[in-house]
Amino acid sequence: MSAKPVPLLEATGLNVHFGGKGLIPALRTPPLRAVNDVSLSVMPGETLGLVGESGSGKSTLGRAILRLGELTSGEINFDGVDIARATLGDLSQLRRQSAMIFQDPYGALNPRMRVGDAIAEVLRVHRKVPPEWVADRVAKLLNLVGLDAGYARSRPLDLSGGQCQRVGIARALAVEPKLIVADECVAALDVSIQGQIINLLMDLREQIGMAIIFIAHDLAIVRRLCDRVAVMYLGRIVETGPTEQVFTTPRHPYTASLLSAIPDIDPDRGLPENPLAGEPPSPIALPSGCAFHPRCPKALPVCSTGEPPQLGPDGPHRAACILPPGEIRS
Ligand SMILES: Nc1ncnc2c1ncn2[C@@H]1O[C@H](COP(=O)(O)OP(=O)(O)O)[C@@H](O)[C@H]1O
Ligand SMILES: [Mg+2]
């Protein structure tokens, strides 16, 4: 009998609330629940897609998981360490084992710093190699992301968007991370360049075996890249499961709406920015009951009352909806 596999990351009951503070109660703004009771896990080497409309809390969740942003409450176990209540020492261990890649490849780099120095900085801070080996490691990292070592002397503005994103990936890889959070890391690039960067990530995952949380609103890319997917709506995960199961038999009407917006004739086409009728409500004034009920084509009277439904039942493919799985697709 083999031992049960241990997740690299296990987050339980995460909340990130903005505002709602202040000394004078009458002046307080109500809290904005950007992440609302989210639990998720990532296995070593696994790629988890995090999808949902703009404003659903994906970036806030990604930053909270790496302790790069606010975390109001919850537990995060990363590689055996409780990093929600981490000491500075624990956090520096986390920094040595995780990294984030951002949407804007230029914004993530200091425009005055040469590319080689930007990568060397990471190596020095984390004492990855002795000083005399830094230049050699920078060259190897550039090669790993498909850039000639000569690019070490370039500055960000000399590079194209795709080259710049490769440098961002090289900086992330410099720490030799067990987990990378990639936040819309190809959204700002041309479609042909997007494909190259996705292929690079797939190659690197194969070579290095790091886990990836891949945040995207482009479902076609998520389907290609991710082992599992979690769908967020207004700060909550409303559906999670193996990618193919979620794409072929969605169990939440929100996921079904997102998927129905992808034209069948061209499966590689991305998702329109706003595939559903209307805007999501504000996370400051969440609807009662299931937060999706005002936009849900299948809503029943009971969906607008009480507590929001929990993810269920247990198993790899779960959704937070009271409808039987057979009744989700219109
Ligand atoms: N620093 C902040 N202060 C206040 N509200 C924020 C802050 N960051 C994000 N939000 C709000 O939290 C919600 C989730 O935002 P975000 O995580 O950026 O969503 P996504 O990445 O899915 O587009 C949004 O309503 C956004 O306006
Ligand atoms: Mg975002």
Q: Could you characterize the architecture of this molecule?
A:
The protein has one domain (9-327): Rossmann fold (3-Layer(aba) Sandwich). The protein has a seven-stranded mixed beta sheet with strand order 6-7-8-3-9-10-11, with helices on both faces. The protein has a four-stranded antiparallel beta sheet with strand order 2-1-4-5, with helices on one face. Helix content is 28%, strand content 19%. It has helices at residues 58-65, 88-97, 115-125, 134-144, 161-174, 191-208, 219-225, 243-248, 253-260, and strands at 9-18, 32-42, 47-51, 73-78, 81-82, 98-101, 179-183, 211-215, 228-233, 236-242, 318-319. It has nine helices and eleven strands. Magnesium ion is lined by residues 58-59, 184.
Please supply descriptive tags for the structure shown above.
single chain, binds magnesium ion, alpha/beta, binds adenosine-5'-diphosphate, Rossmann fold, seven-stranded mixed beta sheet, four-stranded antiparallel beta sheet, 330 residues
CATH superfamily grouping: P-loop containing nucleotide triphosphate hydrolases
Indicate the radius of gyration in whole angstroms. 21 Å
Query: How is the CATH topology named?
Result: Rossmann fold
N- to C-terminal distance: 43 Å
Q: How would you characterize the largest beta sheet?
A: 7 strands, mixed
Please count the helical segments. 9
> What's the CATH C level?
Alpha Beta
How many β-strands, per DSSP? Answer: 11
Q: Please trace the helix and strand order, writing H or E for each element.
A: EEEHEEHEHHHEHEHEEHHE
Spans with pLDDT under 50 lasting ≥5 residues? none
